[in-house]
Design brief:
Arc Repressor Mutant, subunit A, three-stranded antiparallel sheet
Length: about 110
């Protein structure tokens, strides 16, 4: 099995915001959704995930509340705020521009 691709610094915030666009989710559910949506190429470890969630909450881009998970455990559920939606649009645009520039360098025509 090939190794998974490490997530570039700054990209995790964008991926978390994107996953929360579909509705509230707890941390483990966010990590699982990123892994599934990436075709199992990206793996988010807890050491990166929870500091990122705290950072996004501190910036007001997500909000958290305690709830009960699907396996009946207490968990913090995160949801996207209106400021987070605006940030998602901006970061998506910036990331697409960056990716296009990198592709131009890698595959000049």
């Amino acid at each position: 099995m090939p190794t998974r691709i490490p997530i570039l610094q700054g990209t995790l915030d964008l991926l978390i915001l994107r996953m929360l666009l579909f509705g509230k989710q707890h941390g483990q559910g966010i990590a699982r959704a990123i892994q599934e949506q990436s075709g199992d190429e990206l793996l988010v470890d807890h050491g990166s995930l929870y500091p990122a969630l705290q950072r996004l909450e501190d910036r007001g881009w997500i909000a958290a509340a305690w709830g009960t998970s699907e396996n009946n455990r207490k968990a913090r559920f995160y949801k996207l705020t209106s400021a987070g939606r605006k940030q998602l649009v901006q970061e998506t645009s910036d990331w697409r521009r960056l990716a296009a520039a990198v592709f131009r360098v890698l595959d000049p025509q």
